[in-house]
Amino acid sequence: MKHLTGTREVNSALLLEVSRLMSKSEASSGHKIRGVLSLLSRWANLHYGRIMLPNYGQRALEVAYSYGLPTDRIAAGKYTVPFDQGLTGFAWRTGQVALITDVLDEPIFIQRIAEPIEGSMAKIGFICIPVNIDGRVCGVLSIQRRANPRRSYSEDVDLLRIIASMIGPVLMNMRHKAQPVSYLPAQLDHDGDRFVRMSESNSIIGSSPSLLSAVKEIDQVKDSEAPIMLLGESGTGKEMFARMAHRESQRRDKPFICINCASIPEALLESELFGHEKGSFTGAYRRQKGKIEQAHEGTLFLDEIGDMPLDLQAKLLRVLQDKEIQAIGSDRPQHVNFRLITATHVNLAEAIRDGRFRLDLYYRINVIPIHLPALRKRPEDIGLLAQHFLDHYAQLYDRNVSFTQGVYEELRTYAWPGNIRQLQNVIERAVLKASGQLIGAEQIGSILQIERSMHQASQSQSPLRDDARPVLSARESDLYQARHSGFADPEQDPGREESAKRSYMRICDHDSEQIRAALIRTSGNQAQAARLLGMTARQFRYRLAKLGLNEEFQSVA
Ligand SMILES: Nc1ncnc2c1ncn2[C@@H]1O[C@H](COP(=O)(O)OP(=O)(O)OP(=O)(O)O)[C@@H](O)[C@H]1O
Fold first, then answer.
1. CB 184 less than 6 A from any atom of ligand 1
2. Does residue 260 have its Cβ closer than 6 Å to ligand 1?
3. Which of 146, 304, 411, 548 has the smallest CB count inside 10 Å?
4. Which CATH number covers residue 397?
5. For residue 382, what are the domain limits?
6. Ligand 1 neighbour 534 (Cβ under 6 A)
7. What is the pLDDT of residues 20-65, one digit of tens each?
8. With a 6 A CB cut-off, is 306 part of the ligand 1 pocket?
9. What is the pLDDT of residue 363?
10. Residue 59 lies in a domain
11. Contact, 325 vs 319, CB < 8 A?
12. Could you give the angle at the alpha carbon of 236 between the alpha carbons of 195 and 213, nearest 5°?
């Protein structure tokens, strides 16, 4: 490229290279699109290219492919743009090219979606080009560039229009190839076919009558204020349903606040829920809003409510009755208005009988109980979900892989004690381990064999009941408070961002045998072992230490 200096010369060479890339039959669609974005950055200084695709459930455009953007920020939704906002939203709604030459100077531009170029935000332009399939906008190609006297914006727009027209068919191919069938409540009343083909990641996937009836129940009560209680085994999608209920409600533009009552140390749960005033206890350096207050006007999702300590149950009941909270150390009640969704996998009737759960609270929160079926009870969904996760991980890891026929049979005959989360992990592992383009029944069979033995090992071990709720040392407690008060220095605490992904997990979810087995399988690689068990690296290290396995696995990475 060094000898190419004129814009026209660069563009012609680039287009030639792009068409070569597009015609490679062995390359996956993800590989092709990312390759194009990389060429645009390296050859034409059109940086941080991204293809934004719609998530109809969230009414927003999300990054589907990108070049140069930090993956953790993509995962955190930093670049997500609501349909009705910003330049990207404008291109999406109108089908027109949208362009600004200085992101700092444009009021409609959403600043968070731009990245500095060579350390500076000065004179950065942003271009959004609609990507069409059959004349309809199906996504948006967005790109950043620096002011450059040698490249005019109109030349870049011409180039990007051609590129977008080449990307459209690739996206269409993927749509045809992918089988995920997703359900959106908004489509409930549309004709007899209650499923729509879409690629958005947050959709509820399935076609079984039991799943459909749960979705329908949510749909029927979406605009009511009555509390919903989601009942189901771990990994059946309770949190996903809670999010859907919020997304579909009139509170959708307000916060969705989620807290897992089982995995926050008892001593800290009250402050997490109710907040605290500055100086109300050691380490309370400033006022901290509790989750209930954060959920004001939105939805509060209390996961594993069955594990809430009795004294807090009484306080929660009062909040539900009076619609007021009082932060720790405060004498001023504060009005709150939120929709409550709770979830539990424990039998609350038993907990009430044993005196571990208040009957009056149970009546208050169990107004709309919704049962989420275990995966083994709806085997017809397994194939759809497996295909959906295959598609997702093939894109994520840029692998061009598909299943052979026998795989579905293999998957259907397994009991899935960990439900959809377990299926998701199994497919992710299969994609990562695939050596060719086909994933066969044998490969899935051997992964399931390991799953079986892990499950048996966990059944035969006494569950780590005492550790079900993490107990923190005084120092850990201080660190926790500091972190959650927003005072921890991220440099000192690299796990902070990571922990935001999946805030808490119970230590008994993965006992020492599972952790040992995962480490053995990954030859001691803790990051991979964490992934196998569906944990973040930080959660994994925490459990390793808590289970006293640190020394045993000290020497491995
Ligand atoms: N119907 C579904 N379609 C697609 N993905 C699903 C579905 N249900 C669950 N999942 C996926 O399975 C995983 C587990 O779901 P989720 O966390 O909502 O389950 P849960 O019941 O809340 O689990 P836990 O009780 O352990 O917290 C998530 O990654 C979620 O995206």
1. no
2. no
3. 548
4. 1.10.8.60
5. 375-460
6. no
7. 888 887 778 888 999 999 999 999 999 999 999 988 767 889 999 9
8. no
9. 94
10. yes
11. yes
12. 45
